[in-house]
Amino acid sequence: MKITIFGTGYVGLVTGTCLADVGHDVVCMDVDAAKVARLEAGEIPIYEPGLETLVRHNMEEGRLRFTTDAEAAVRFGTLQFIAVGTPPDEDGSADLQYVLAVAETIGRHMTDEVVVVDKSTVPVGTADRVRDTIARVLDERGESLAFEVCSNPEFLKEGNAIEDFTQGARIIVGTESEWVKGLMRECYGPYIRLQEKLMFMDVRAAELTKYAANAMLATKISFMNEIANLAERLGADVEQVRRGIGSDPRIGYHFIYPGCGYGGSCFPKDVQALARTAGDVDYSADLLQAVEAVNQRQKQTLFAKLSRAFDGQLAGRTIALWGLSFKPNTDDMRDAPSRTLMEALWAAGARVRAYDPEAMDECRRIYGERDDLVLVADRQQAVAGADALVICTEWKVFRTVDFAWLKDELAMPVIVDGRNLFDPATVQGHGLMYFAVGRGNSLQEELPRLAGF
Ligand code: UDX
Prior knowledge:
Layout: E1 2-6, H1 10-21, E2 25-29, H2 33-40, H3 51-60, E3 64-67, H4 70-76, E4 79-82, H5 97-109, E5 114-118, H6 126-141, E6 147-151, H7 161-167, E7 171-174, H8 178-188, H9 194-197, E8 198-201, H10 203-234, H11 238-246, H12 267-280, H13 286-299, H14 301-309, E9 318-322, H15 337-347, E10 351-355, H16 360-367, E11 373-375, H17 379-383, E12 388-391, H18 403-409, E13 414-417, H19 424-429, E14 433-435, H20 442-451
Parallel strand pairs: 1-2, 1-4, 2-3, 4-5, 5-6, 7-8, 9-10, 9-12, 10-11, 12-13, 13-14
The structure holds uridine-5'-diphosphate-xylopyranose.
């Protein structure tokens, strides 16, 4: 079938490519001419395992094309996916200007009946606004073409997007139209066992499902981080607690890893946007606000631990950082805990020597050249001459460490681990001080040793 995708960002590109890969004829439209030129040359602007090969293959097969021509794009597809960005406004609500601009474009150029599919994460009620916009533009044109707007939220994890698209837990479609249901079955049919995975519901329920899913996952993480903070103060090991509670199938093992806070393009933005939406309908979403507040505080714990270890004397120190991206297998640094840490270190007069397997270009793009940031080619160089090491991201390559070597390299034997990668006893056995997340009262026990250093 013929499909148009508006927006060649992360979601649009993965969606367009995966749909082309099962034989659909896909045109991806973007207003950014430079981006489209790069894509036409087979260059992928984001890091996502497997995506580049898939894009090139489908371009070669002639099923995947990129364009800046909005009119041609609108006239192409029976399904018109809106997958443009919804960045947070200053007040935390989702900014819909790009979504509504696409709706205008569709209304202006459509010459046949179409189904508009909201793929971007948009507040409840957006499908109605998209519908109103298209209807208004058609009215201005004096046209009365049939169209439908449905909601089809994405559940892609960065680094695992292709698998999530092709083998996801569910495909949510918010619509009451039998015409739309038929087209969406045809669209996703090649990927799913329909009865199990395609879920039709009303439009507002579909829109809310997306936010509820992300808010639930973020809640699990903030809850676990709170338990970790308690464990630290109570002298308990949160890793044992995690295994203990995860064994209950009602709780489960997924998404209960404590850490240095969640980041990325979805959780922080979506939790805040849902809390704002609640405010708009006069409901105070206290739990969501707490989830966000706990996360903000958690992202500051890396610096707080370092600062306590150095008795607040961080000026002039050099801190090695392993991991910049908000999680492994991505170069994304949006809302990453590493940023909270680096910015606090710089404010305290410390320098950073950082290594990340994928995110260093992104880091350069965000922070530019500065004297207090050195990006190095591997993790060994990051610790060379550093006073202490902080681990922000659990990339696989950081999981095996020669602790004797590390002890020799670091001027002070301090590791702050935001991802609980190691067994505390093993690290401490090498004479290193190990400040992890919620692993007993390590901080209290270790500090007197450090004071005498
Ligand atoms: C998330 C959702 O998983 C996905 O379904 C949705 O479509 C978009 O948002 P993503 O942002 O790519 O995907 O990352 P995810 O792998 O879910 O991790 C989010 C954050 O939570 C990361 O910062 C990660 O480090 C953190 N996390 C995750 C924890 O701190 N503990 C956990 O147990 C799990």
